[in-house]
Specification:
The protein is α+β, with helices and mostly antiparallel strands. It folds into two domains: about 105-240 and about 310-370, no CATH class; about 250-300 and about 390-515, no CATH class. The protein contains 16 helices and twelve strands. The protein has helices at about 10-20, 50-55, 70, 75-90, 245-250, 250-265, 305-315, 330-335, 340-345, 350-355, 365-380, 390-400, 465, 480-485, 495-500, 505-515; strands spanning about 55, 105, 140-145, 165, 180-185, 210-215, 230-235, 380-385, 415, 430, 440, 450-455. The strands form six sheets. A two-stranded parallel ribbon has the order 1-8. α8 runs antiparallel to α10 (about 350-355). The longest helix has 15 residues, at about 75-90.
Length: about 525
């Protein structure tokens, strides 16, 4: 695809939209398009990671924040996109009647950007679990380690555990009692390659692998009849947002077929592990859609997916389709019986319980704002691939395919023909490098995400530029691509060993390819 320029009409729409958006002027920098190659050849489709309509040629610190062309070309969609971006970037407050009000009574973060600092990326690995730290995008999970499905302690805690509260309410767990410990791990090869080179040679952490252990003090737990010694805690990093509209546009039929193919060769523990039914469907949406979002593939569509849910359950801001709090019945009971809460609010036990358990609370966010947020969420483009014609990158590409990495990191999908939420994303050949299925990598202390969705690899080579780090995997234990590969065990152990036994030059080439896609 040769270099393109914005038409006069599109520029006019952009200028009109800029006038309508109070804080959008600094977001209207021209998006770099691919330069024509010296020989005049077109770019191959692999450069367009998000398809022709879903890719931006932007390799700057704003690479994950760009809208797809269809958003830029429509003044109304652009206004909604900018409003959605504003909602994602603002902190909600508890004061009624003010802008972005509705926070609480308990919550996880005050804003989307608190977990997704560059919108599309994720936060970096941290040493301390402190949600006031803008680097910490981790979510806390409390679960039963003796359960075959590692079931959440859902009687007491929400799926993503709340550690913040608006006074006089109290958090289910006090953050000061959550301890994040990073421990060193030595694999069966002594953290060295067959040629004697240590893992991550030349880095400050040369020869080490690390993994997290989460400890929660019993005294930090609000519920006095909850026994933490019979439960476990783990952390999960937030996922990237860019390109989620394109993943949503993959057809259910294609995803089921991928599941069938991998089951036949003994891969893929299932879309959501032991709870999957015989048709490969997500029981959250029986008979409708297979899961594809979240680490555990518990969400099947973007309309009921990570962003649509997070905007509500992270902040507890109600809206017309969610007119109730994201809390457990046990939390509502304990708070309604708390004398300090009763006295502070001047409410009786019954009045408090009625408020906390109500299914018809006033909406704190309008439908219009939620729809704008979803235009932003769905319309974030994927950064184009880079340096694919470099000889070393091409060598890495060959190794990636020849060693079988594509068995799980499926390179190519085609979106369905009638993606009505954003038609421009229909019929796109995309390169996310994921099968959207769950696999068991048999990691040391993996936490609740023992069987985890294959992470899309598109655009991740830009993490150091956009986010200032290269931390990876579901809990960010891997500090670079090399460590991410070396943590692959279980279903991917053979591929890890193939990588370990490559000459150093081949290992470097493979990583260069990953950095380029």
């Amino acid at each position: 695809m040769k270099k393109r320029s914005l038409s006069v009409s599109v520029m006019a729409l952009l200028m009109a939209a800029a006038t309508a958006c109070s804080d959008g002027e600094d977001r209207l920098e021209p998006v770099p398009e691919p330069e024509e190659k010296p020989n005049g050849e077109d770019y191959s489709e692999e450069w367009f990671a998000g398809g022709v309509n879903g890719t931006v040629f932007n390799a700057t610190e704003r690479a994950y924040k760009q809208p797809v062309d269809a958003i830029n070309a429509d003044a109304n969609l652009f206004r909604q996109f900018m409003r959605g971006e504003e909602i994602a970037g603002k902190s909600f407050v508890s004061t009624p009647g003010t802008g972005y009000s509705g926070l609480g009574p308990v919550y996880i973060r005050k804003s989307c950007v608190a977990c997704h600092p560059t919108y599309g990326g994720h936060s970096k690995r941290v040493e301390t679990f402190d949600t006031s730290d803008s680097r910490n995008g981790y979510l806390l999970m409390i679960y039963d380690p003796s359960s075959p499905t590692l079931a959440l302690a859902s009687k007491y805690f929400t799926g993503m555990t709340q550690t913040r509260a608006v006074p006089p309410f109290k958090a289910p767990i006090e953050e000061s009692g959550v301890h994040l410990l990073w421990k060193e791990y030595t694999d069966e090869h002594g953290n060295t390659y067959p040629d004697g080179t240590p893992y991550s040679a030349g880095q400050a952490y040369e020869g080490t692998l690390i993994y997290p252990v989460v400890e929660v003090e019993q005294a930090a737990i609000l519920f006095r009849d909850f026994d933490m010694s019979k439960h476990a805690a783990s952390i999960e990093a937030t996922i990237g947002i860019y390109g989620t509209g394109l993943l949503d546009a993959i057809s259910d039929e294609d995803l089921r077929e991928q599941y069938r193919v991998e089951q036949e060769r003994g891969y893929a523990s299932g879309l959501i592990g032991a709870d999957i039914d015989e048709t490969g469907l997500n029981p959250y949406f029986p008979g409708k859609h297979p899961g594809r979002f979240t680490y555990l593939c518990t969400r099947a569509t973007l309309d009921n997916g990570p962003g649509a849910n997070a905007l509500w359950n992270i902040t507890n801001v109600t809206r017309p389709d969610r007119t109730y709090h994201y809390i457990t019945e046990e939390y509502a009971r304990v708070m309604s019986e708390d004398a300090e809460v009763q006295a502070s609010l001047g409410l009786t036990r019954d009045s408090l319980l009625s408020y906390l358990t109500s299914r018809s609370l006033p909406s704190e966010m309008t439908t219009e704002d939620f729809e704008a947020f979803m235009v932003w969420h769905r319309g974030l483009a994927v950064p184009a691939a880079r340096n694919l014609d470099d000889a070393e990158v091409q060598r890495g590409r060959t190794l990636f395919y020849d060693t079988g990495c594509t068995a799980c990191h499926r390179p190519q999908w085609t979106t369905r023909a009638n993606y009505t939420p954003l038609p421009a994303l229909s019929n796109q050949t995309i390169y996310p490098y994921t099968d959207l299925l769950r696999h068991d990598l048999d990691m040391k202390e993996p936490g609740r995400a023992r069987i985890c969705r294959t992470t899309p690899l598109w655009g991740r080579g830009l993490l150091p530029l956009t986010s200032g780090h290269s931390d990876m995997l579901h809990d960010l234990r891997a500090r670079n691509y090399e460590e991410a590969i070396l943590w692959h065990g279980g279903e991917a152990k053979e591929l890890k060993e193939t990588f370990r036994n490559m000459p150093k030059e081949d290992r470097s080439a493979l990583i260069r390819f990953l950095e380029s896609i």
